Amino acid sequence: MSKKGKRSGFRKGKMTALDYFIFVVLLxxxxxxxxxxxxxxxxxxSTQKEYADNPLMLFPxxxxxxxxxxxxxxxxxxxxxxxxxxxxxxxxxxxxxxxxSMAYGLSRAKFPGKKIIFFLVLFTMIFNGGIVPLYxxxxxxxxxxxxxxxxxxxxxxxxNMILMMNYFQSLPESLMESARLDGAGxxxxxxxxxxxxxxxxxxxxxxxxxVAYWNSWxxxxxxxxxxxxxxxxxxxxxxxxxxxxxxxxxxSVDSVGKQGFSTGMKMAAVFVTMVPIMCFFPMLxxxxxxxxxxxxxxx
Length: 299
Description:
The protein is 77% helix and 0% strand. The chain contains 16 helices and no strands. Helix 2 crosses helix 16 (262-296), helix 10 packs antiparallel against helix 11 and helix 12 packs antiparallel against helix 16 (262-296).
């Protein structure tokens, strides 16, 4: 009997034809994602001539840091990094505070005016005033030309609030009732009872807001005018546009090489922009799926 059990267990562990098919499909899809990404990195380390000979290279024969040197030459990209970090340092805590506090209030059944407020928030997901009224509001508050305009413009997301509200509603009400019996107020309940239990959704919303602030460029283009205030994406856009303009005005490959390899600079800019987010994402990945799944389903 033991031998039969071992044989049956071994057969259950064997891969079937369907397993091999799924493995091959996933492998092909993975390569379709990884190869272009790797190609972008390799182009950023290649020369103009080598790229012209082989645009789909996997390994450059003569790797060079010329594109990165040209990208960091004038120091403007470092200013863009600093401005983006300021957006994250100030904007991310503000967004999490506004989202979590409103989500907690609307998740409580006895919150006064809950349905009306939720309808108004939901309404903004479908209709909004547009960029002109937003600009006029920022101008009336004397915030145009400062980073505060970019922070406030992206400080709240109705979608993120609804995800967090649904997650808070999934928590047992008995926990909040027990805290109230011990004399805790709503703020203390939210900070000491609800938020410690909401690590998955907090990590998910942190990732959403962090990526949004990191990739923000449109609000900065509208509200900011000084070059030393622009975040990273706007600085990279200016560098790439300038390099493309110089390349288009060049008369030969040699003159392009002197002014800078525009495609290499573009790929270097893509890689430089992705690296911080790639380092940030794995820390929150384990909470991401649980946070989105629980927050998206109303229980």
